[in-house]
Amino acid sequence: xxxxxxxxxNLQVHGYSSQPRFTQxxxxxxxxxxxGVQIGRDLFFWKFNNSKNIIRLNGDKxxxxxxxxxxxxxxxxxxxxxxNVQLSDSGIYTAAVSRETDVILSTHDVRVQGAExxxxxxxxxxxxxxxxxxxxxxxxxxxxxxxxITVHVLDWTRKKNN
Length: 162
Fold this sequence. Notes:
By secondary structure, the protein is of the alpha+beta class.
């Protein structure tokens, strides 16, 4: 005789990033919690596709599961950095707190693309727009790298002069 059990899951959705986040393979991706929350003694977790645990924070104890060697977790702001993302990392990432009901704090729809996939849109205007975005993204990366180098050079110069 088979018994049937119904489980009801009560979720409260607070923060949701409905726009897909596109990123390229072999890059690092930061996922943030969009809601300010006090964890206290509650269980906090990051999940992938609502099934695979990535991080579970219980008090001060952090357990790492999926992505064990490719994840950095920051207790202060509950953000997560996935290192060296691959095509198989595409999916839904969810940050939540488990209380009487699970409270979803943030959800990210991540889509990882290989370098050859970045500008393969159908029409000419879509390809043009994609190339413009790629150039702007590249210039932005160059500016960030230049800024970091400048800060390090200035810091080194100040230390040398003191």
